[in-house]
Amino acid sequence: MSKTLQKVAVEQLQVGNYIRLPISWREHPFMFNSFKIRSRDQIQLLKKLRLTHVVVDLKRSDAGVLNAPAIPNLADSVPDLDKMKEQMLQQKQQGISELKEFRREYKKHEREYADSLAQLRAINNRLPMKPMEGLMLSSKLIKQMAASLSAGSQVTLHLMNDDIRPDDPSYHALNVTVLAMMLAKRVGMSEEEIAVVGQGGLLHDCGKLLLSKSLLSKKQPSKADLREMQRHPILGQELLRNQSHLPRSITAMISQHHEFLDGSGYPKGLKGNDIEPLAQLIAVVNTYDDLCHPRDKTRTRPPGTVLGMLYKIFKDKLNNHYVQQFIKMMGVYPPGSVVQLSSGQFGLVTSVDSEKLLYPRVLVYDPAIPRQEAAAIAIDTQGLTIERSIVASALTPEAFQYLSPKERISYFYDSRNG
Fold first, then answer.
1. Other residues' Cβ atoms within 10 Å of the Cβ of residue 325
2. Main-chain dihedrals φ then ψ at residue 284, nearest 5 degrees
3. What is the pLDDT of residues 65-113, one digit of tens each?
4. Which of 19, 41, 279, 353 would be 256's cystine partner, CB 3.0–4.6 Å?
5. So what's the pLDDT on residue 136?
6. Which residues contact 355 (CB under 8 A, 6 or more apart)?
């Protein structure tokens, strides 16, 4: 046992000790096998379970262990431990039931995400040769998504589990589409306007379909390669130039999504109001996803850090109103963030509820619970808060494997009333 891990008698525990129980998760009423003691009642309950020793992680504890067994204070009220245990077991069972329901719901959203991704790939396959047909398919998909978003008063953003195909542009396009539509809803746009934003997000990178895959997949592109890739907004505009029915705002999102308010963007170096309003909205979301998934993987940053960059570094480049609303929409800890909880445990944020941004659902690392049985919990139901966001590389190898932080973060939503 390492110096920071110590086998300690239950009588020597005190509030603030971070402990690991030496019994199965199913043999006690606590939600986790590892946790920080928050009250003397919890220590009394550990004694009630007839545990003689636990393992204390001194590094993650707020207090040291007692040198001798604690002397009972007769003035302290004695809790009804049987009642306390029963209540905790009921809460634990309710939590397990809620997790099962969440898993069922999540499977449904996974199917919806996979279906949208498949439709998007079909659209991308048709656009270069049959743009009219591709546009009809994109309009159908976006109308479905816009109707779903508009119908719900509460929107939850989920981190999706998917099998990433290298160099497939569909993941980025769908991310931009989902986040842009959610942002459009947040700033008060109508269902029709949300659909326009969605189609612009879906098509914003269509010019890349005319570039060679070998060029797009280069890990270290030359300056000439970068100049060629920066032509994609113009190529997208040319691809759809004969589609006169396409609203100007959509073609603007295609041609202007890399333009910045200070004139430092491309392809034309437009400034300020010369950039269409909806193109300014798409630019915020597109920049966020690009920064989360840089070509150079060594420059990958946590989602929360990227939100801070949008606010600070891109202050003069992006529409501040859209940036502020986007940050509020994503929350302090967006899905995909690796975090440390008030209990000392590490976790992966899997979803953010628009009504409870400070209390996302988190997959918590607990080595005593098999990963296949683990599920994300709503941390507020366990009296937990997030202390800080950390980089995935700071995790132990065991925690990293358990949480499996995503190299590419993919988002989808569910929308419902109530």
1. 18
2. -65, -50
3. 998 876 665 545 557 888 888 888 888 888 778 778 877 888 899 999 9
4. 279
5. 96
6. 154
Q: Per residue in 188-231, pLDDT tens? A: 999 999 999 999 999 999 999 999 988 888 888 899 999 999 99
Task: Write the single-letter amino acid at 233.
Answer: P
- The amino acid sitting at 391 is V
Rg over CA atoms, the chain:
25
Average pLDDT, the chain: 89
Say what angle helices 232-239 and 248-256 make with each other, to 10 degrees. Answer: 150
Q: Give 413's strand partners.
A: 157
Using left for φ > 0, alpha for ψ between -120 and 50, and beta otherwise, residue 272 falls in left
The token duo for 10 is 């239950």
Residue 377 pairs in a beta bridge with 362
* Rounded Cα gap, residues 392 and 34, in angstroms: 20
As a whole number of angstroms, the distance between CA 182 and CA 331 comes to 13
